Amino acid sequence: MSIRTFFTAAALVTSLGAAPVWALDLNGAMSGLPAAKTAGQLGEQPNGYLGVVNNQGNAADIARLINQARKAEYERLAKNNNLQLSDVETMAGKKAIEKTPSGQYIQVNGRWLKK
Questions:
Q1: 108 phi and psi, to 5 degrees?
Q2: What is the pLDDT of residue 16?
Q3: Which terminal Cβ of the chain has fewer Cβ within 10 Å, N or C?
Q4: What is the mean pLDDT of residues 48-72?
C-alpha cells in the first residue's frame, strides 16, 4: 500500500461516521480524526505522525491508534523500497502538512501553529 493509498483509505474510512468512544479501534479513530483536527485537538507533525494539540475527548487514543497504523505502513514502505524509516516518515510528514487545510494545526519547529 502506498502512502497515497493509505491516506485515501483513511479518508474513505473517516466518511463512514464515528464509532462510540468506548469501542474505539482503528476504524473509529479514522472516523473521529476529521472532527478532532477541526476542533484543534490533533495536528500533523513533520515526522509523519499525528500530535496532540489539545488533549480533550479521545484525541490521544485517536492519535495513538492512527500513529500505530502509520508506523506499520511506513516500515513496510521503507523495507520494500530499501529506504530508511526516518526518510519515509519525513516524506509522509511533508505531504501531510502540505495537505492540511487552512485553520487546522501543524507543527513547525516544535510549536503548534494554525495553518
A1: -130, 120
A2: 42
A3: N
A4: 97
Range of the domain at 87: 3-114
Buried b (16+ CB within 10 A) or exposed e, 26-53: ebbbbbbbbebbeebbbbbbbebbbbbb
What pLDDT score does 24 carry?
A: 84
Quick check: pTM over 0.85? no
The total of structural domains in the chain comes to 1
Does residue 68 have a pLDDT over 80?
yes
What angle (nearest 5°) sits at the alpha carbon of residue 69, between those of residues 55 and 16? 75
Nearest CA among 2, 36, 45, 39 for reference residue 18: 36
- Residues for the chain: how many in total? 115
